[in-house]
């Protein structure tokens, strides 16, 4: 029997803030004490372009190991950073309600995407974002950036909340815009930097973007235990359906987290819709598909994802993009 529930998370400001919120909910529902335990992950330690670090799940592996080792009882992940392959001994016990899944443009001088000057510099480390930006605006100069959300925002001069800094190439104030997930900006209280929320016609988010994943040891997921019950209470069925479809598509494409693949699913009435895009890295060629199912179950959602992936593969998505997402 667990007395104090240990909740593992990455140590970034974003991770700590989202973990604090969900921990408050969990302990309120379960009536137990909870302690947040920051775990250092490879993704925090390694430097270099994220898209070249190879492999999937740099952020997730250490957290998962900590749960398996019983250093913590629950891991809180950003769902989009969680590899699709199941890990024996771990259960995805809760997927809380998703927040805004969109990507957001944070540009200087209040500019929107269409208003950026010809050849403007836009920072992102994500091939998915780069490809879709270039599909909309082939003239843009995409700059590979990484670091935490505040570090990325600091690259754009004059954004609300940025520290007052000079232009330092490669560091501060040197880009016209950056693109980040609206969810992350909300969670650290910096949504006021957004100059445009990118619509799904322009940019489909990463599978799972805006959602969290709570993993625990399979033995503790049982609904007879207080932890399993509390996790079940924060699970959100529509979000789980959506992310199940998105992740099934990603898995069937055998695409890594840095592949130029976007996907977004949502329930409307009695139907579950799934939209997806696969793009060449230069944005010159994109394939977009959409499909719906009335099978509102995890099996129905999984089949939807698989079927849409197979449509993309039959249309040649594998030739369009390096889906394994290794070298750029
Ligand atoms: N890969 C980094 C990452 N992982 C989760 C988020 C925040 C958004 C979310 O929870 O989906 C971010 C930052 C970003 O993409 O801007």
UniProtKB/TrEMBL annotation:
Annotated Porphobilinogen deaminase N-terminal domain residues: 5-223
Residues annotated as domain Porphobilinogen deaminase C-terminal: 241-313
Modified residues (S-(dipyrrolylmethanemethyl)cysteine): 257
Cofactor section: dipyrromethane
Catalytic activity, reaction form: 4 porphobilinogen + H2O = hydroxymethylbilane + 4 NH4(+)
SUPFAM superfamilies: Periplasmic binding protein-like II, Porphobilinogen deaminase (hydroxymethylbilane synthase), C-terminal domain
Stored InterPro entries: HemC, Porphobilin_deaminase_cofac_BS, Porphobilin_deaminase_N, Porphobilinogen_deaminase_C, Porphobilinogen_deaminase_C_sf
Any one GO biological process: protoporphyrinogen IX biosynthetic process
Metal-binding found in the keyword field: no
Keyword check for Cell cycle: no
Pfam hit, one: Porphobil_deamC
GO molecular function: hydroxymethylbilane synthase activity
UniProt-listed Enzyme Commission number(s): 2.5.1.61
Coiled-coil residue spans: none
Domain of life of the native organism: Bacteria
GO cellular component, as recorded: cytoplasm
Family under the similarity heading: Belongs to the HMBS family.
Job of this protein: Tetrapolymerization of the monopyrrole PBG into the hydroxymethylbilane pre-uroporphyrinogen in several discrete steps.
Extra facts: The porphobilinogen subunits are added to the dipyrromethane group.
Protein name: Porphobilinogen deaminase
Gene: hemC
């Amino acid at each position: 029997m667990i007395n104090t529930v240990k909740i593992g998370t990455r140590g970034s400001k974003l991770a700590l803030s989202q973990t604090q919120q969900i921990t408050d909910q969990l302990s309120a529902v379960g009536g137990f004490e909870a302690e947040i335990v920051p775990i250092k992950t490879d993704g925090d330690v390694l430097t270099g372009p994220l898209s070249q670090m190879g492999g999937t799940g740099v952020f997730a592996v250490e957290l998962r190991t900590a749960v398996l080792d019983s250093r913590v009882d629950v891991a809180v992940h950003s769902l989009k950073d969680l590899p699709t392959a199941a890990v024996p001994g771990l259960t995805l016990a809760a997927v809380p309600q998703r927040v805004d899944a969109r990507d957001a443009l944070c540009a200087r001088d209040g500019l929107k995407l269409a208003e950026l000057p010809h050849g403007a510099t836009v920072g992102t480390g994500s091939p998915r974002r780069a490809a879709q930006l270039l599909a909309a605006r082939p003239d843009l100069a995409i700059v590979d950036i990484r670091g935490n959300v505040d570090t990325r925002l600091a690259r754009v001069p004059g954004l609300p909340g940025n520290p007052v800094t000079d232009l330092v190439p490669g560091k501060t104030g040197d880009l016209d815009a950056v693109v980040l997930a609206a969810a992350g900006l909300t969670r650290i209280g910096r949504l006021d930097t957004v100059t445009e929320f990118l619509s799904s016609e322009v940019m489909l988010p990463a599978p799972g973007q805006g959602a969290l994943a709570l993993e625990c040891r399979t033995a503790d997921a049982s609904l007879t235990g207080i932890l399993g019950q509390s996790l079940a209470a924060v699970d959100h069925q529509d979000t789980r359906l959506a992310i199940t479809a998105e992740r099934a598509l990603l898995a069937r494409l055998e695409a890594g987290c840095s592949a130029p693949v976007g996907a977004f699913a949502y329930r409307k009435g009695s139907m579950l819709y799934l939209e997806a895009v696969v793009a060449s890295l230069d944005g010159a060629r994109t394939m977009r598909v959409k499909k719906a199912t009335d099978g509102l179950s995890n099996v129905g959602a999984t089949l939807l994802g698989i079927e849409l992936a197979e449509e993309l593969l039959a249309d040649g998505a594998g030739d369009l993009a390096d889906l394994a997402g290794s070298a750029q």
